[in-house]
Amino acid sequence: MLVESPDEIVVRRELLAEMRRAASSWPKPEREAFELYYVEGFEPQEVAMILGEPQNQVHDLIASLQQRLRTEAMRQALV
Fold first, then answer.
1. Three-state secondary-structure class, residue 52
2. What is the value of pTM for the model shown?
3. Contact at 8 Å (CB) between 36 and 50?
4. Residue 3 has pLDDT above 90, yes or no
5. Pseudo-torsion of CA 44, 49, 55, 57, nearest 10°?
6. For the chain, what percent of residues have pLDDT higher than 90?
7. Looking at residue 79, what is its pLDDT?
8. Separation between Cα atoms, residue 50 and residue 68, nearest integer Å
9. Is it the case that residue 5 has pLDDT exceeding 80?
């Protein structure tokens, strides 16, 4: 098992906090999927069940969120 250093933990928490701030302005379904998948760690099929959405729609939503998060991370890196 790989153990994170204290510095790595801080960086991961700061990045998560930045992504959560960015997600706070997203539409509710996207915020909910983000929290369930990226923060809480649910699998896509579990997210679909919790949200009451078809699995294929949730998979598409997560793919869209991944792109948004990449874009946001790049934006943050340039600041």
1. coil
2. 0.80
3. yes
4. no
5. -100
6. 56
7. 67
8. 22
9. yes
Give me the DSSP letters along 9-41: HHHHHHHHHHHHHHHTTS-HHHHHHHIIIIIS-
Residue that is written with structure tokens 């790049």 in the block: 74
The CATH number that domain 18-78 falls under is: 1.10.10.10
Number of residues that make up the chain: 79
Return the structure tokens found at 32. 């909910």
Sketch the domain layout of the chain as residue ranges.
18-78
Residues sharing a CB contact under 8 Å with residue 16, sequence separation 6 or more, in sequence order: 38, 39
Over residues 30-41, the pLDDT tens digits come to 999 999 999 999
Instruction: Report d(CA 14, CA 23) in Å as an integer.
Output: 14
Q: Which of 61, 72, 55 is nearest to 19 (CA)?
A: 72
Please name which of 14, 26, 27 lies closest in space to residue 76, comparing C-alpha atoms: 14
